[in-house]
């Protein structure tokens, strides 16, 4: 599974600011993150940083939410208003708040972005898109590498186990299971031992996962002798 390429930002703000941003996003049929991204694409970073910050919620300004988990699940809780924005990692949430304030100012006509050179603007947008694409590409490659590492290790471990099994398993007895000693040998019990029925069943199930014809290392001959050995020790 590939890791998420976005993170959630919590932006503290006044409830009036929150409601205005949500209303603008609804009218434009976009999400809050799209509003911030649009401003950040066409406005220089220094201009966004220098824009007036709408600030946090004033004293007494609270929103009520219903807790969804924990011992108090289902109960109302009053907290400072906030906006949740999903953006690429590494963005200062204060810049996001200023970008959203600029979006409101543009929508209300209090702020206009003058484009003297459309070619320059297009180049700036193209550059921003290219940088974002390259950065996400690096993150995606890193995420894929992280996802592939456990799979590669598992494959290597399986290969080692298969090699060990090939060395440890015995060849089928030429004449089949004809004695108690043969049965103990096939099931891997030391000569002269007397395993109880539960031990015999457990050993059979373990070896059957290896020798069953449906497995990668399966063998009809070995599976047949496992059945013979169990039947012999059970006195059938």
From TrEMBL:
- UniProt keyword terms in alphabetical order: Stress response
- What protein is this chain from? Heat shock protein DnaJ-like
Species of the source: Rhodospirillum rubrum (strain ATCC 11170 / ATH 1.1.1 / DSM 467 / LMG 4362 / NCIMB 8255 / S1)
């Amino acid at each position: 599974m590939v890791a998420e390429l976005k993170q959630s930002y919590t932006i503290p703000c006044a409830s009036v600011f929150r409601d205005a941003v949500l209303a603008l996003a609804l009218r434009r049929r976009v999400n809050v993150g799209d509003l911030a991204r649009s401003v950040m694409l066409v406005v220089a970073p220094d201009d966004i940083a220098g824009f007036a910050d709408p600030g946090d919620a004033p004293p007494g300004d609270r929103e009520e939410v219903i807790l969804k988990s924990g011992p108090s699940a289902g109960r109302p809780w009053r907290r400072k208003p906030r906006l949740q924005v999903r953006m690429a990692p590494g963005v200062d949430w204060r810049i996001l708040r200023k970008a959203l304030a600029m979006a409101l100012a543009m929508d209300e006509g209090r702020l206009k972005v003058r484009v003297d050179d459309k070619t320059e603007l297009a180049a700036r947008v193209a550059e921003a898109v290219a940088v974002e694409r390259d950065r996400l590409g690096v993150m995606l490659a890193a995420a894929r590498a992280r996802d592939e590492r456990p799979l590669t290790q598992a494959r290597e471990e399986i290969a080692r186990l298969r090699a060990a099994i090939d060395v440890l398993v015995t060849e089928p007895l030429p004449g089949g299971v004809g004695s108690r000693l043969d049965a103990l040998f096939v099931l891997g019990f030391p000569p002269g031992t007397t395993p109880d029925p539960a031990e015999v069943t457990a050993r059979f199930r373990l070896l059957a996962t290896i020798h069953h014809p449906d497995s990668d290392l399966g063998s009809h001959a070995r599976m047949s002798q496992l059945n013979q050995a169990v039947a012999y020790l059970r006195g059938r």
